[in-house]
Structures are given as structure tokens and as C-alpha cells.
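tool=predict chain=A
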Amino acid sequence: MQQIDWRHFESLEFPNEELNLAKEQAHQAVQPVSAVARKFLPEVPNDANATLAWVPGFTRLAGHWVTGVRSFRASFSFLDFNIYLVDEKVNTISQIQLLGKSQNQLLIWLEEQIGKLELDASGLTMNLPYDLPDYDSKGTSVFSAEQQMVLELSKYYHNTYVVLKEVCKSMGLEDFTIQIWPHHFDLAVSIIVKDTGDPETDSTVSLGMSPGDEELNEPYFYVNTWPHVKTTDLPKLASGAKWHEESWTGAVLAASQVVNQPDQKEIVSRFFETVSEILIAELKS
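tool=predict ok
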């Protein structure tokens, strides 16, 4: 069985322009990867067919499987900033190096390669069902992220995946899915606390990681709830984690509270375990 280890975060100052650029460009790079499954698989609620999976052995974000003349899926590699099309045995069908190329060039390449698999990808566009931030490098500007920071960014996805697998198993969960949502570029797992039979009215907690957004300009770990709960009277959290009660309710642990500590994994694991236990109890009460 493959051992998946924690990858120690570098001590960075936040906000970090180089890490933000890596995030912005990786976020753009995965949009066509998600678009492949969105185009060729049946539409499902919540754009779930466009979600990505973390592939720890390859340090890639991979889309869902699609069938042309053979089954394949698209993926983005943090290791070399390439987009890959691979078959079910993970043999490379084709690949493209993104650095020095534009997103438009990537789309043209994808359409050509998918055409060779006898699928019509002519409508593979960036007409997304959501708005992306107005990144400076969107569209015709070329990808130019610093590879060291791309690899640092990958640690946030990898480490969160590692910890969430352990936390979910410690909670006795046997059926759970850790996925990356291309809209906000966050990695998360959702746990049903009260199952009503209708996903719209279920009570849930979601545990995850955001690489940073308009609310917090650095990566952060989070636990949130649906429906909202009142957090003002809940116990104070350790290691600099804070309760959150604005656009959503739950708790946040910022990367700046973790990267300078020797026991990084323990801090993140304890955050997820402690906060989820408290919020699950609130939802059940």
C-alpha cells in the first residue's frame, strides 16, 4: 500500500505575490481540464462532473473519465506545469507544456487531441457556469508561474488530502469523496449530519482548504456548515484558528498560523477534528 506522507510547508510571509501568481495561473490551467468532463458527460446538479480529484502519486489534479475511441481523462500536473491526457492505465496519450503558452493555445491543443479520440471538442470553450476572478493573465497572456511556488502550492492540496482521509476514517466514515471544485479552486469533503433525503435540505459540514480568496489573501483550512450555526458562543480555538460568521459559518485556520510551526500536520489535523466535532454537535442539537 502506497505511503502518502505530509509535505512540509515552507515558511513564507503572507500575502505572497509569487504564491498568488502560482495559484492564479494554476486556477486558470485547470478550467479546460474541468471543461472536458463538463462537455462530454451528462449534466448533473452543482456542476459535479467538472470536479477534480487529487492524484497524490503524480501530484496532479485529474478530471472525470470520458470515453472516445478509448477512455481517457485530462489532468494538470504541478510537477511540470503540463496538461496530460491519459488512458485508464495512466499511459500518456498526449501532453502539453503550459509555460510560455496561453490559455487559448491550450484550448486549441485540447480540441485537436480530443478530436484524435473521435470526439467533437469544437465547443470546448471557456463559457463557464461561474465567474472567475479577473486575473491579469487570463486569455492571451502566457503562463509564467515560478515552478518553486507551483510546487509549494501543490503541498496545500496534497497535505489537506492526506489529513482529510485520516480524519474521515477516524470518524468512521467509509464512503466519502475528497474533490477539488474548479470554481473556487478549493479542495473539500462534505459530511452529511442529517440526511433528509433531499440534498437541498440536508445538514452538512464541509472540511477543506482554499488557496486564498477575496476574504483571506493566503491559503487557509476551513470547516463550514449548512445550515448556518451561531458561532459567537462556541469555545475559543487553538493555534490561531478563528470562528467565522459572515458569508458562511464555521472556522478558519490561516496558513500563516501553520507554516512556521514544527508540528504542522498535528495542528491541521487537530483543527479539522476539533472544529468538526463541535459543529456536528451544534447541527444535531
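Residues 17-40 form the longest helix (24 residues). The two ends are 40 Å apart (CA to CA).
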